[in-house]
């Protein structure tokens, strides 16, 4: 039984915790029943498909398409998994390998800013609102990216407080310097944009 957002909001903290725990247990049971394990980051999905002992790469038939995935053994009508992918992928950046009796399938998401609810549309879904992304620290970013992120965070904070953004502060500073360098000019009626 699914709970609407309104119903969830009306629950007490204890009821929410119990519901979240029950949902996590149900999701874990449903996911464990799948013929594969999967993990995801915002930009990619990794699928681990256990295979019969002794399976070699040439025994496998893996078809990776923009919106479909199929994994099976050659000569067998039954696929281990087959169906429509939850979202589109970048086929040219997606790969598969065989390692220790497990087919490792790496899919690059087309939209790298979204969480997948499931791998194949007909499989049980997970609640993507409860995903806790792995910690990423500003210190992990290269200098240029880190500077951009810090600037965006600063500007966001300034806007929320009704204060000028970093670009607006630079313009105000440049104007002050220009006024100081040209005291003979009257800026009282100037419109600055």
TrEMBL record:
Gene3D superfamilies: 2.60.40.790. SUPFAM superfamilies: HSP20-like chaperones. One of its GO terms (biological process) is protein folding. Signal peptide: none annotated. InterPro entries: CS_dom, HSP20-like_chaperone, NudC_fam. GO terms for cellular component: cytoplasm. It comes from Gymnopus androsaceus JB14. It is found in: Cytoplasm. One of its GO terms (molecular function) is unfolded protein binding. This is Nuclear movement protein nudC. Residues 31-120 form the CS domain. Required for nuclear movement. May interact between microtubules and nuclei and/or may be involved in the generation of force used to move nuclei during interphase. The lineage of its organism: Eukaryota, Fungi, Dikarya, Basidiomycota, Agaricomycotina. The keyword rRNA-binding does not apply. Residues 7-29 have a biased composition (Basic and acidic residues). Residues 1-30 are annotated as: Disordered. Keywords: Cytoplasm.
